Amino acid sequence: MRKNVKKNSLLILGIVVLLLFRACFICASLFFCSQLPRIIKLEQKIEKKDEKEIKEFVESYLDAICKGEFDEYCKKSKDTKEEIEAEYSFEMNRHSQYFEEREVPVNKASKEKFKELRVKLLKNVKCEVSDAEIFRNDCLVYVDVQPILYDADKMNEDNKRMLDKATKSYYQKYPNSQVVHKSVLYNMLADMYLDYLEKFVDNPTYGEKETVVLSVNRNRFIGNSINPIDKVILKETFIKEVN
User: 3-class SS at 110?
Assistant: First the structure.
């Protein structure tokens, strides 16, 4: 008899515990459901804040890589100033094909002018952040670029014409010269070529707008970082040869 009472007591206790657990579960579910709109709203607020911050981060990267303005990017990035300066220098030198000195040894002043024009060319690239959206742990940032166009064949033809013009000018200036002093001829050619490039840089021809998507890691612990492959794709749109 006592065994049956004890058994029934344990059964009743088990049922009570189960009912209490079920009641707690229902209460917790109801509480979670009541808080769900607030949680979703908070998540959306965090995402909007992340979008804004990452858009500003990408804008600072564009300023660094095109304009040589590094300070703001260094504040927002885990990259050091030396690293972004090296990336900028590499990008500027990569575009030096548009400013080749055509194997002409020119003076120091001309070389400095070539460098100034390379810097100015990158500053003339039109690129801006148009939109951003959160995608899982990343933020997709849309950058609109209007590439500067150049015609390599035309530039080579123009260079040949400038060489002919410089040669004629040399003989007009030194009609009795029987030996061409290359240093004098090359300086005359460099001056013409610098004028030609300056006009090209000051009045660039732009192509149609292109949109490049950059994937940015939004991990707050390691800092924002742009996908390296996306960086390469972006830079390839800055300056393009006319087909």
Answer: helix
Question: What tokens appear for 40 in the block?
Answer: 């979703």
Give the bridge partners for 238, in sequence order: none
Element (H, E) at 234: helix 228-236
Calpha distance 93→170 (Å, rounded) = 32
Q: Which residues are 175's β-sheet partners? A: none
Q: How many domains does the chain have?
A: 1
- Spatial separation of the C-alpha atoms in residues 84 and 106, rounded to whole Å: 30
State the maximum Cα–Cα separation within the chain, in Å, rounded to a whole number. 138
The CA–CA distances, whole Å, from 215 to 59, 114, 160, 200, 230 equal 14, 34, 44, 33, 7
pLDDT by position in tens, the chain (length 243): 544 555 556 566 566 556 666 666 565 555 445 544 443 343 444 455 577 888 888 999 999 999 999 999 988 888 888 998 998 888 877 766 555 545 455 566 777 788 888 888 889 999 999 988 888 778 889 999 999 998 888 888 888 888 888 888 888 888 877 777 777 777 787 788 888 888 888 999 999 999 999 988 876 545 668 888 888 889 888 888 886
Instruction: Provide the residue range defining the domain that includes 85.
Output: 2-241
Say if strands 148-150 and 239-241 run parallel, antiparallel, or are unpaired: parallel
- C-alpha span between 59 and 105 (Å, rounded): 39
**Cα 85 to Cα 83: distance, rounded to the nearest angstrom:** 5
